[in-house]
Amino acid sequence: LASVVFHMEDIYVRHLELLGYEKRFFPSQHYVYMLMVKWSDLSEKLIYRTYPEIHTFHKSLKDMFPIESGQIEKRDRIIPSLPAPRWLWESEKSRETTKSTLAEYCQKVISLPPHISRCKHLSNFFKVRPEDENPPAPNTLKRAETFLVSRDQARGVASEISAPIILDTYRVIADFEKSTKYEITLHTGDLVEIVEKNENGWWFCQCESKRGWIPASYLEPLDGPDEAEDAEPNYEGDEHITIQAYKAEQDDEISLEVGETVEVIHKLLDGWWVVRKGDETGYFPSMFLSKAGKRERLNPGGQRPPPRRSTIRNAKSIHNKSRQRLSQDTYRRNSRRYFQQKGSRLSEPQRNSKNAAKSPLKERKNQDNIPEMSGSSSESELKKEAPVIPPRPSPELILERCTDNTRKKVSIHKSQSSSSS
């Protein structure tokens, strides 16, 4: 057998301690674990890692050292096991089985022989990241909640966090077959608890003794079909760059090449964001986008874009009313309205200028009934104080946004009109 040499770092982790966890609400609700890392150069760093990240690291460490992980002979295993932390579990079996907690895992993995505990893979994972020093901007309505391990518990063998983590429960709407070892197979009607909602549309969940990634499009909340955490559209747009090409497979998607600059106008939790490129809009996989000026995003487990809800066959929801999604015509219409209103406010002093900036979205034969801006000074003076007339919404948009009661009355009126004719 050919010997494999693993590079050991000059500066290595000499101590690793779980301090607690933090519940965050940005960009969506998730939990991060607070770890104190002490290095061989005597520096100390506080880092934050999600449980899915730690679990993925653990799996890759086992793959790097198959002998020490017991994959060849079980009796040779020295790499500790990493089940879900005790505070994440509800099953009777897991409570009865004595397994290592995350705190114990941290202690044991650093105590492994140097060729493992000082390997480059381990050192890189625990190195401080920019987001460790500058956490995401806090939600203005909800502040992050921090839970610490008591010192008395930390000295004990089984270190546990005092307060339990309460996870969101979702229902599976269709059978899902895993295609990688990082995913899990689930069936219609299964109830899962969400550990992390990744914005690329893959969520890390647990179902009884299983845990792994599943597309958010296969899940629905128990209390209603609408995802409460979905953000509102932002028609000003958030500039991103495509890091991978994608060819549209459905009419409401958009095809883009690598390196194109687009504006994200609606971030949806299923991982398919609405982007704007010139006059066009469409759904695009968020994992193929990188925020302008930032490094490329990384996909946990090397995942593919999650399937869209519209492509799932035999989906069975427990809710009578399906999710309401805006059409691409609505996104384009609202974008034109936004720029028209913004342009009218910003171009007041230079309305008579021939070089006044035009809206990035061209008006198509004034179909939204937005008044044309006149070049004459007299009309300009009259219109300075007048607000911009909003476009009349289409019948489809009215039905889409009205209450159920109104929608029923409209359908009754239509049926009566058709019967009388």
UniProtKB/TrEMBL annotation:
Alphabetically sorted, this entry's keywords are:
Cytoplasm, Phosphoprotein, Repeat, SH3 domain
Name all PX domain ranges. Answer: 11-133
Q: Which GO terms describe its molecular function?
A: phosphatidylinositol binding; superoxide-generating NADPH oxidase activator activity
Q: Which PROSITE patterns match?
A: PX (PS50195), SH3 (PS50002)
Using the UniProt record, give the first listed, main subcellular location.
cytoplasm
Taxonomically, which superkingdom? Eukaryota
User: Which Gene Ontology biological process is one annotated for this entry?
Assistant: respiratory burst
Q: Where is the composition biased (Basic residues)?
A: 306-324
Ranges of residues in domain SH3 = 165-224, 235-294
Which InterPro entries did the record assign? NADPH_Oxidase/PX-Domain (IPR051228), NCF1_C (IPR015039), NCF1_PBR/AIR (IPR032136), NCF1_SH3_2 (IPR035757), P47PHOX (IPR001655), PX_dom (IPR001683), PX_dom_sf (IPR036871), SH3-like_dom_sf (IPR036028)
Instruction: Spell out the Basic and acidic residues composition-biased ranges.
Output: 398-407
Q: Which GO terms describe its cellular component?
A: cytoplasm; NADPH oxidase complex
Sequence ranges of Polar residues compositional bias: 337-356
Q: Mind telling me which Pfam families this protein's record contains?
A: NCF1_PBR_AIR, p47_phox_C, PX, SH3_1, SH3_2
- The answer to keyword Transport applying to this record is no
The segments labelled Disordered in the record are: 294-421
State where the protein is found: Cytoplasm
Q: What is this protein called?
A: Neutrophil cytosolic factor 1
What does the record give as the organism's lineage?
Eukaryota, Metazoa, Chordata, Craniata, Vertebrata
